[in-house]
């Protein structure tokens, strides 16, 4: 195969935002089509290099070809959609039944999401796995954030001459642990972006709601203040917000056109975050409300920005 054909298929592989198994099947079919069409054109008298270029010209621009394949293959079937929405439904039930007040229940569910995500990822990254991976990332993100905050607090205490709450060996252990956590999360995000930044957005959907809920609990006695009546009442709106996430996920997976998927998330996520923020207090401009809204904005903007940076970096390092 001539370099032009290899470059075309490589560029198309990069632009195909569908399941890897489907992408490989499409690329094999296109490669066979290119070889057959090239042979036909050579029988008509064209030189091989000119025949390959003509066959590539007939296929069309890789962006348009990738868009057409995406429209055909991106709409998930109902079983896949149901599996993708299931973790949000489970989270809704956890809040509705006040299971969030039991550390064992929370840890068990997050561990279950992690195991399911790892097994599914090893079996070819099925489309339904990305919401599950969002919940599996809760513990690593929380651990990394806790370590970073503890280190910053220790530095501030040292600068102000105060006695640190932890022994020095603990801070050194945290300092040694932090690069590993950062490497793990950054490499995983890179794998998401290699597939599609939209899946990273889908995985991060629960984070604004979990963080807003955490900030709300922190303001009112901590995460295990189960005896507070108003804390139990506020779990109801939170359950509705996660049920809304299940509905949003269902909508995104069932839509075919990419711009409709992006539009559904861009509209639905801020609305759900605002609903959650105003369920806690009449004004969203409180610590829980601002936490949910700011993180919702980050979830919307960060993945496409990271994907843009990744694309720019690949363009700079691509051979001329």
Give your account of this protein's structure.
With 320 residues, the protein is mainly α. It contains 14 helices and no strands. α1 (3-15) packs across α4 and α11 (207-219) packs antiparallel against α14. The protein has two domains: 3-71, no CATH class; 77-317, no CATH class. The chain has helices at 3-15, 20-43, 48-59, 62-73, 78-96, 103-122, 129-136, 138-159, 168-195, 197-204, 207-219, 229-254, 258-280, 287-317.
Shape, per Cα inertia axes: elongated
Mean pLDDT: 84
Instruction: List the uncertain runs.
Output: none
Structural class: mainly alpha
Percent in helix? over 70%
Q: How many β strands by DSSP?
A: 0
Number of helices: 14
Strand content: under 5%
Q: Quaternary status of these chains? A: single chain
Précis, in short:
This protein is mostly helical. The protein has helices at 3-15, 20-43, 48-59, 62-73, 78-96, 103-122, 129-136, 138-159, 168-195, 197-204, 207-219, 229-254, 258-280, 287-317.
Q: How is the topology of this model organized?
A:
Layout: H1 3-15, H2 20-43, H3 48-59, H4 62-73, H5 78-96, H6 103-122, H7 129-136, H8 138-159, H9 168-195, H10 197-204, H11 207-219, H12 229-254, H13 258-280, H14 287-317
Helix pairs in contact: 1-2, 1-4, 2-3, 5-7, 5-12, 6-7, 7-10, 8-9, 9-10, 10-14, 11-13, 11-14, 12-13, 13-14
List keywords for this structure.
14 helices, 81% helix, elongated, 320 residues, 2 domains, mainly alpha, single chain
């Amino acid at each position: 195969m001539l370099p032009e054909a290899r470059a075309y298929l490589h560029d198309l592989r990069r632009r195909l935002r569908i399941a890897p198994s489907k992408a490989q099947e499409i690329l094999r079919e296109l490669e066979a089509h290119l070889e057959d069409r090239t042979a036909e054109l050579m029988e008509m008298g064209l030189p091989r290099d000119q025949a390959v270029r003509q066959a590539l010209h007939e296929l069309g621009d890789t962006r348009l070809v990738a868009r057409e394949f995406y429209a055909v293959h991106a709409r998930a079937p109902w079983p896949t959609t149901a599996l993708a929405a299931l973790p949000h439904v489970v989270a809704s039930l956890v809040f509705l039944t006040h299971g969030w007040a039991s550390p064992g229940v929370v840890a068990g569910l997050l561990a279950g999401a992690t195991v399911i995500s790892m097994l599914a990822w090893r079996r070819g990254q099925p489309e339904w796995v990305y919401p599950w991976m969002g919940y599996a990332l809760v513990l690593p993100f929380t651990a990394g954030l806790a370590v970073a905050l503890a280190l910053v607090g220790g530095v501030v205490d040292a600068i102000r001459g105060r006695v640190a709450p932890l022994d020095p060996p603990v801070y050194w252990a945290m300092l040694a642990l932090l690069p590993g956590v950062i490497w793990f999360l950054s490499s995983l995000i890179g794998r998401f972006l290699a597939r599609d930044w939209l899946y990273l957005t889908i995985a991060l959907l629960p984070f604004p709601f979990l963080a807003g809920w955490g900030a709300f609990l922190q303001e009112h006695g901590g995460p295990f203040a189960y005896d507070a009546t108003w804390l139990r009442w506020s779990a109801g709106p939170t359950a509705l917000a996660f049920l809304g996430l299940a509905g949003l996920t269902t909508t995104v997976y069932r839509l075919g056109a990419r711009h409709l998927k992006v539009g559904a998330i861009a509209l639905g996520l801020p609305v759900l975050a605002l609903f959650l923020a105003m369920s806690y207090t009449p004004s969203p401009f409180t610590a829980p409300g601002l936490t949910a809204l700011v993180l919702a904005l980050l979830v919307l903007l960060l993945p496409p920005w990271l994907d843009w940076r990744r694309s720019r970096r690949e363009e700079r390092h691509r051979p001329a």
